[in-house]
Amino acid sequence: MAQATVLAAGTAAATSSDIVVAAGESVTVAIFAASGRLPTSVAFAVKQDTPGGDNVVARLTNVDRATVLAGPGTYRVQRPAYAGTAFGVFTET
């Protein structure tokens, strides 16, 4: 299993680098922090790239910190701006 950070920890609004999942493969996407909790009202949106606008396929929260994405597809994670502990996003394959 290999881990890669696709969005560095922070609290400013930001979008991860592309997460490309090949046909027949799966990737775990999760949020991380050195310590602390994500505020209850904050959710990171996991979006799939489409020919039109991106579709939200999952939300990462303090309770649901990870999701598994199935390929094929290209995904990104959007972090909203918030006050509190800095969180980032990583993938694991």
Structure notes:
The protein is mainly beta and 93 residues long. The protein has one domain: Jelly Rolls. 0% of the residues lie in helices and 53% in strands. It contains no helices and 9 strands. Strands 2, 3, 5, 6 and 8 form a 5-stranded antiparallel sheet that branches. A 4-stranded antiparallel sheet has the order 1-9-4-7, with no helix packed on it. It is globular and about 35 Å long. 22% of the residues are buried.
Oligomeric grouping of the chains:
single chain
Describe the global form: globular
Helix percent reads under 10%
Mean pLDDT: 95
Please name the CATH topology.
Jelly Rolls
Number of strands: 9
Largest sheet: 5 strands, antiparallel
What's the structural blueprint in terms of helices and strands?
Layout: E1 3-10, E2 14-15, E3 19-21, E4 26-32, E5 44-48, E6 55-60, E7 66-70, E8 73-79, E9 87-92
Antiparallel strand pairs: 1-9, 2-8, 3-8, 4-7, 4-9, 5-6, 5-8
